[in-house]
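FAQ
Q: What does a multi-component entry look like?
A: The components come first, one per line:
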Amino acid sequence: MAETRTPDSTRRSERSRRAIYDAALSLVGEAGYGRTTIEGIAARAGVGKQTIYRWWPSKAEVLLEAFLERGGQAAESDPALPDTGDLEADLKQVLRATVDELTDPGFEIPYRALAAEGVINADLGAQFVRKLLEPGLQLYVDRLRAARDAGAIDPDVDPRVAVELLVGPLAHRWLLRTLPLTHAYADSLVEYALRGIAPR
Amino acid sequence: MAETRTPDSTRRSERSRRAIYDAALSLVGEAGYGRTTIEGIAARAGVGKQTIYRWWPSKAEVLLEAFLERGGQAAESDPALPDTGDLEADLKQVLRATVDELTDPGFEIPYRALAAEGVINADLGAQFVRKLLEPGLQLYVDRLRAARDAGAIDPDVDPRVAVELLVGPLAHRWLLRTLPLTHAYADSLVEYALRGIAPR
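Then the predicted structure of the entire assembly, as tokens:
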């Protein structure tokens, strides 16, 4: 029980938790999701495997929470999309940063594994969407609502659908590896999409 | 060797091939991709498992070719997108049909399994894209080129990127199950995207 824990034991389990997240992300990156086991994560994190089983039902949940913590840290430092008043510039900046993240091997390999697992495992997919994906999409929705209030986009446009014009093609190209994921592509998406939702 | 085959043995192996495709699609639909084995496919198709191993290196390739044959049959009967001269109506018709296909359980479950396998297995993913996905996207590109020649879209627009404004959000919503995949959503995508690529 948390109440009976000393500050020291709380610090120790916090340290274990972070070590487990780091171990899960690096192992999946090196060996692939299929060859990553709870035992392997425990060994690399320097904890007993029962510690992991006590906290998480499966390696998929360990990985999901590792990304949640990473995303949570990013959100604390920068909880909203930039709003300089120039919607096109702001969206290009965010979409280019997303391209950089999705093509960084240390991020890409485990994130791709988690996304693929969610594609076939509906329960995990629902958690992935609810905890990890939708909060990020909501930041775009908020930015587009602000733009709509400022008269920069058509008042009849559904911001949630408009967001998908930006992130859907990016995810499609990334997940299926159809064509290169570049800043130029991100810029084109922003330009086409913004013309599509401009005031009439 | 094919040259020494009698018409009867050619018919027999053609029949076996189709039985194997049907068995693979139905078994993945019922049991899931992970629990489908070459042995299971062979038993349901009424062939020896060596017959499958002789023709395909893995169950993923069996499934991919099953979809290729299905797609090939569809393409023979209808090799291009409709071109009534009304681009918006034509695209809505095709995108609605895609929604219907992606939400038909008999198609969805095995197709989703194949797509997810391609997300993590780069070799299979490349085959999936080259053989199955890109030929279908090319039909959209052809239709958009015809529309561009007819003055219905901006001559500076890259049709291959424009296609992704339509199919990317659809695939995103379908693969990640973020929100319902409906005809109304397909229609919105066509409307937003066409405004985005309209002549200036």
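Q: Is there any commentary attached?
A: Sometimes. For this entry: Chain A is about 75% helix and 0% strand.
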